[in-house]
Specification:
By secondary structure, this protein is mainly beta. The protein has one domain: Roll (SH3 type barrels). The chain is about 15% helix and about 40% strand. It has a six-stranded mixed beta sheet with strand order 4-3-2-1-6-5, with no helix packed on it.
Length: about 110
């Protein structure tokens, strides 16, 4: 799978209801050692109900400047949530479907 296949893909629930679009992915560095660092693992998908555009780093809680952009991206991505990868039922070209009872988490990252 190529990351570009996931970005901007529509996300639906099990009943086919549209939940939003994939705007980013989250990786965790908790796999086996791969040289000096742990191997990355796909942790989850960020789903925005309104747009397929990226946060451009403004999901980090300490990023507040320039203030106009920080407020704009907070408004534009209101309602965005993180879905753990294990709650993804299927990925097809241009479509992501979530399992029944999927979990939603805050997209915010510390500083």
């Amino acid at each position: 799978m190529i990351l570009g296949d996931l970005l901007d893909a529509p996300v639906t629930g099990t009943s086919g209801d549209r939940l939003g679009y994939v705007v980013d992915v989250r990786f965790a560095l908790d796999g086996p050692l791969d040289g000096l660092l742990a191997a990355p693992r796909l942790h989850g998908l960020l789903v925005s109900p309104r747009t397929g555009t990226s946060f451009l780093g403004y999901e980090r809680t300490r990023v507040r400047a320039p203030a106009v952009l920080a407020r704009y991206y907070a408004w534009r991505h209101r309602g965005t949530f993180l879905v753990p990868w294990e709650d993804v039922a299927s990925v097809a070209p241009g479509a992501v479907r979530l399992v029944d009872g999927f979990r939603r988490f805050s997209p915010a990252l510390p500083g």
